[in-house]
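G., the chain you wanted modeled:
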Amino acid sequence: MCGFAGVHLSDCSAPIDAAGLRTMVATLRHRGPDGEGIHLEPALGLGFVRLAIIDPAGGHQPFASSDGRRWLVFNGEIYNFRELRAQLEAAGRRFVTRSDTEVVLQALEEWGEGAIERFNGIFAFARWDRDSRELLLVRDRSGIKPLYLRFEGSDLWFASEAKALLSRSQFREGIDIVGYMGGDEVDPMLEKTPFIGIRQLGAGCLLRIRDGAVSVRRYWSYAPSIESDWDGDEQSLIEEAHDRLETAVTLQLVSDVPIAASLSGGIDSAAVVAAMVRAGRSDVETYTVEFAGDATGDVRHSKMTADALGVAYNGVPCIFDENTSALIPRVAWYAEGEFDLGFVARYRLAAAVRDAGAKVLLTGQGIDEILTGYYASYQHFRRISLVRRMQYSLLPSYRGWPPFGSEAIDELGARYEYDPLDEGSHALWPSLAAEKLRADHHRLSSGMLRFEDRMGMACGVEVRVPLLDHELIQFFASFPEPARATLFSAKRVLREAMRPYLPVAIVERPKLGFNASAAPLTALVANHPADLGELISDETVRRLGYFDPEICAAIRSRRDYVLLDHVFVVHLLHRLFIERFDPQQFASREVDSAVLDSASSEPIVHSSAQSDRLGVERA
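Predicted structure as tokens:
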């Protein structure tokens, strides 16, 4: 689990700017505090920083094949690398390390691009073949690990985070508002980002450069079923869901360093910890963010889960007050996009995990997008899928769109009400639902997975998301529409699968927002400190030109902090990455303890009516 940066020049004899590459790598040092490496040759440069998880003594990168022909930089984990290694050894290959990195390189040599489909894991990598002069870039199926790109003519720069590319001043062109919103396509092979001119390789895609030609293809697609036939056997699906979940979690326990887990009080993270315990990891340390007053009951339910499973509970206090403002620029620097106070909370949790000695954190993230967990019911999900098709196509990867309340959605969707088990069901429903499920899976890449990766890596912690194991989510994708209608509502399939192992109060607890009691960012910074507060001023709005000054003045006057947060975040990103780019200001994770431990008798809180904002949801 690491970070890498590289450059590929179209002129085969052109030298690489070594100092520039080292500067790119330096911006990623938080991702890999355990080691660093550079490889240079004409027209090709690779740089790497390492967080050692598997084979700490070996697996240093950039990693070369035994003949020096091929080079690899690899960010991630291949959970089934031992099984693949055994297959490769049976084919006559020999290994010099115990690392999954070497397995990736030799698998590509043995099986070609077909090796990628054998990998079970989270990964982004670049493989260079000196003889064929081919560069191959690959990203995992759900986009759990990042891979950013910048083309200048036929030359390519790439990196694990956008800031490495932005270290080159000529790439700092401005903020891309559409990219900030999550893009305007579903499953693009090259995703837009919040930065003009910088793209991200799409989830499940690979990019190849050979003989000056660039090609991109998708090697895996998330494809929910559009079938309407089902035999009604719920129990078999629930039992298989349980078995697949436990298999995924067990597979992701591979590590040569300590592993921790997050608990948020909901069913998702509880299911992961329960599976860890059943796999023999009863020694796992769990971590929970403790918001002021525990208004949502998260702490109480997390402790209940920990007690029931017999695992250690660790609370991480997170009180949002004026002092929190000191952390906001730091979190924005690592977030590289839309963020809220949920990111601040996860940063604090990751810091606590690393300070306690663990480098790996398992979470329950991602399953809400797969099982329609953000909706009151599957029927509500279907209605939204109809409204979004009618009004906005698939643009609403932007959280918060379309701007309809539940009453409007119900009114628009009522005419299409139907019994999903009735043979006379409306024929559009399966395809509409599948389309919306695919869109929700796609938005993980720029949303919740960015949240997990950036806040974890900011503190040198690898975050694993076993509920996005590709075989598990492919199983859920195979559910026909009638099965989804009965088993996806309130994530019933997951709740029933885990009912024998968790307290009833956890299994039946409804979903709530992860930071439902936290203030919008602008509620904290509107009046202090002046340096942050001025980012939403009339003068800044007019100077930067990203938003309409009159509209901004109106939302500020009515204190619509939810909308104002977007103005603030875009302007803060512009300041940090375009106007005042300076990685050194965040080079150390040491933050004034008064900030991390700050407590306020009257923390700023917003009402539960505002909880359905553009915030991070509970996993």
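DSSP finds 25 helices and 18 strands in the chain.

Shout if anything looks off.
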